[in-house]
């Protein structure tokens, strides 16, 4: 059931992003990032994201995003995104951004969970609507995984609930 829901959401996101290339109110962005773990187990994350945003006005936009987050297990976040430009858009424009959603886990012994990623960043206009950006923020990913402990007399399985939190650093390209 999770796979069917994920495929439907992925199809909707893809349709949204294809439409995004048709007007100036839509922007696409992709970023890569890492972070500094603040939780146990300490795992330095590697993230890749794709976002599609619709500009409500010159300073505020909303959208959807997905990607891949790799901790000790791979997670696929699907989230709603809101972005606010702190000043009127110029060559260098600082902004606030927040993504909130759910992470799916492709591993059968892992369940995804809540996803939150607020950040502050700066974007630099290269040419027209093409921009590069740098963001510093916080990322929280919750997940559950099935653990097995084997000893000579017994075998035990239990669910381990993890909250991965980290200070995140991202760099990306917007078009």
Describe the model.
The protein has 175 residues and is mostly beta strands. The chain contains one helix and nine strands; from the N terminus they run αβββββββββ. It has an eight-stranded antiparallel barrel. The radius of gyration is 18 Å and the shape is elongated. The model has no long low-confidence stretch (mean pLDDT 85).
Coarse shape: elongated
* Model regions low in confidence, pLDDT < 50 over at least 5 residues: none
Physical arrangement of strands within the biggest beta sheet:
1-2-3-4-5-7-8-9
Helix amount: 10-25%
Radius of gyration: 18 Å
Task: Give average pLDDT, whole number.
Answer: 85
Query: What is the ordering of alpha helices and beta strands?
Result: HEEEEEEEEE
Strand fraction equals over 45%
* Euclidean distance between termini CA atoms: 34 Å
How many helices does DSSP assign? 1
The secondary structure category is: mainly beta
Total number of beta strands: 9
Largest sheet: 8 strands, antiparallel, barrel
In short:
The chain has one helix at residues 2-20, and strands at residues 26-37, 46-55, 60-70, 74-85, 92-104, 110-111, 114-127, 130-150, 155-174. The chain is mostly beta strands and 175 residues long.
């Amino acid at each position: 059931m999770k796979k069917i829901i994920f495929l439907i959401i992925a199809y909707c996101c893809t349709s949204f992003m294809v439409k995004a290339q048709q007007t100036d109110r839509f922007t696409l962005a992709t970023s890569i990032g890492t972070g500094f773990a603040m939780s146990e187990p300490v795992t330095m994350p590697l993230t890749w994201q794709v976002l599609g945003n619709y500009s409500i006005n010159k300073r505020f936009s909303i959208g959807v995003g997905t990607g891949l987050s790799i901790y000790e297990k791979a997670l696929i976040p699907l989230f709603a995104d809101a972005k606010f430009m702190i000043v009127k858009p110029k060559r260098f424009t600082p902004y606030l951004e927040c993504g909130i959603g759910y992470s799916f886990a492709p591993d059968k012994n892992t369940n995804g969970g809540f996803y939150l990623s607020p950040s502050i960043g700066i974007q630099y206009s290269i040419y027209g609507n093409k921009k590069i950006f740098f963001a510093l923020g916080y990322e929280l990913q919750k997940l559950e995984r099935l653990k097995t402990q084997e000893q000579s007399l017994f075998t035990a399985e239990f669910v381990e609930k993890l909250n991965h939190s980290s200070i995140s650093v991202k760099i990306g390209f917007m078009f």
